[in-house]
Specification:
single chain; mainly alpha; Glycoside_hydrolase_63; four-stranded antiparallel beta sheet; 6-hairpin_glycosidase_sf; about 475 residues; about 40% helix; MGH1-like_GH; hydrolase; glycosidase; about 5% strand; three-stranded antiparallel beta sheet
């Protein structure tokens, strides 16, 4: 049993206010100024929280997103609102040109979207929204309509995005894992020639401090990768010539959602066995390809590069953090190398902790992830108020800059859930309390300094409000 501690004063009313002011009538924007359209994994997290206010609104949130699904099954990372001025966000619909550049992949003809994707948390969100009001869900046929779209989404990821040949999903752009500016992408991005300065205008700097945002160099690389993918017709078999990475967070969320999809199938009287088998196969591949026992967490795998990398304690080739020699190849023999010529990215990112979400994760690996989360590199329950997005001891750590150190509320919500799943209720309770308190004191910030909780990025951020509300309800505080 978990302890029910009063939610901080103003949390419920504040979260309601944020979600109401950011609601458009069909979906919730992350932030009206900085992010004025619908984002894929944002809407999943927002629905998880808004289900406590209005299950029907949460259903509509997800239905609006799923309606923009492409014919090949992908769920785009942005669905554009035609009422928003083109200059309000870059890259906008005129850049992505989804209806024409994505025609061969089945992009919607009358809805403008981006062409890349975000982490697949949607089936989990649909299941949780259904549980909030099963009668309303059944009356509106919510799961019956969502299930075939979710199944097609998972098939797309499993078939079109197994670009490493090892059974895991690959990402073709740093925006796809959701942790856009992570130091985990520095080495893969170094191969990318940036789009020339002056060929694009960054609208994000109109709403946030430059010191909190990606550099112009990195942004130029993001633009070049997206343009190349677009110009190739969003074809995955030719994608990622410069950037191709297997990310543990993306794959962990797919596994969690595959388990959710199995439960949805069972509720609808469909065959759940293929989803359970797929989840088990993905879990085995995740452990085989990305688990690093020396680092004590899962590492990203660069399918084009990688290699020995930096010593995670500083200097020289990567060493076993417990005092051994070079990290072993998980397939046997020699330093870790990908079968296609790449190798692990030796940076410790929060995505490497997210497999705590995976049911059936081997107990020794789950225990090691908890030790790593609570150790010097992430400081959970010790030096950090919330789990940072990147290694506190890493050479690229910055407590203020986008995904290079700040703590994010969705990451901490996921880790709180993972701690409970793997028998750590006291740590989960402490993290939940910290999330709730920091959400209120930061003004529902986009992200915060992991040490102080100081607000960074924009305020009144939708998933911060939604996930804080969800944790408050879980703590026994009715909205």
């Amino acid at each position: 049993m978990t302890s029910a501690r009063p939610a901080p004063t103003g949390l419920t009313s504040g979260a309601r206010r944020v979600l109401q002011q950011n609601w458009t009538g069909s979906c919730t924007v992350p932030s009206p100024g900085l992010y004025p359209h619908q984002w894929s994994w944002d809407s999943a997290f927002i629905a998880i929280g808004s289900r406590h206010i209005s299950p029907r609104r949460a259903q509509r949130e997800l239905e609006t997103l799923l309606a923009a699904q492409w014919g090949d099954g992908r769920i785009p990372h942005i669905v554009f609102n035609p009422a928003v001025p083109p200059a309000a966000y870059f890259p906008g619909p005129d850049f992505w040109r989804s209806a024409t550049a994505g025609a061969a992949a089945g992009a919607p003809r009358h809805t403008e979207t981006s062409g890349i994707v975000q982490p697949p948390v949607h089936a989990l969100a649909c299941l949780l929204v259904h549980r909030a009001d099963p009668r309303s869900s059944a009356r509106h046929g919510f799961l019956a309509r969502a299930y075939p779209r979710l199944a097609a989404w998972h098939r797309y990821l499993g078939r079109a995005r197994d670009l490493g040949g090892g059974g895991l999903v690959s990402v073709v752009h740093p925006w796809e894992p959701g942790m856009d500016n992570s130091p985990c992408w520095d080495a893969p991005l170094a191969r990318v020639a940036p789009a020339p300065p002056g060929t694009f205008r960054r609208a994000d700097l109109d709403h946030g401090a430059a010191s909190d945002r990606p550099t112009d160099l990195d942004y130029g690389r993001y633009v070049r990768l997206a343009a190349d993918y677009r110009d190739g017709g969003y074809a995955d078999h030719t994608a990622g010539s410069a950037f191709l990475v297997e990310d543990p967070g993306v794959n962990a969320l797919l596994i969690a959602s595959e388990h959710a999809l199995a439960e949805i199938a069972a509720l609808l009287g469909a065959d759940a066995a293929p989803h359970r088998t797929r989840a088990a196969d993905l879990t085995a591949a995740l452990v085989d390809r990305l688990w690093d026992p020396a680092a004590g967490l899962f590492l990203c795998r660069d399918l084009h590069g990688g290699g020995p990398g930096r010593d995670l304690h500083g200097g020289g080739p990567a060493r076993d953090l417990h005092g051994g020699g070079p990290v072993r190849d998980l397939h046997g023999g020699g330093p870790a190398r990908d079968l296609h010529g790449g190798g692990p990215v030796r940076e410790l990112g929060a995505a490497g902790l997210l497999p705590l979400l995976v049911p059936g994760l081997p107990g020794d690996i789950a225990a090691a992830l908890v030790r790593t989360a609570c150790g010097d590199h992430f400081g959970l329950g010790r030096t950090a108020r919330l789990v940072p997005s990147y290694d506190l001891l890493g050479p690229a750590f910055d407590p203020a800059r986008y995904w290079r150190g700040p703590a994010w509320f969705n990451v901490n919500w996921l880790l709180e859930r993972g701690l409970r799943l793997h028998g750590e209720p006291e740590r989960a309770d402490a993290l939940r309390t910290a999330v709730l308190e920091t959400a209120v004191t930061s003004g529902f910030a986009e992200y915060v300094d992991p040490y102080t909780g100081e607000a960074r990025g924009t305020r009144d951020f939708s998933w911060t409000a939604a996930l804080a509300l969800d944790l408050a309800v879980a703590a026994g505080q009715e909205p």
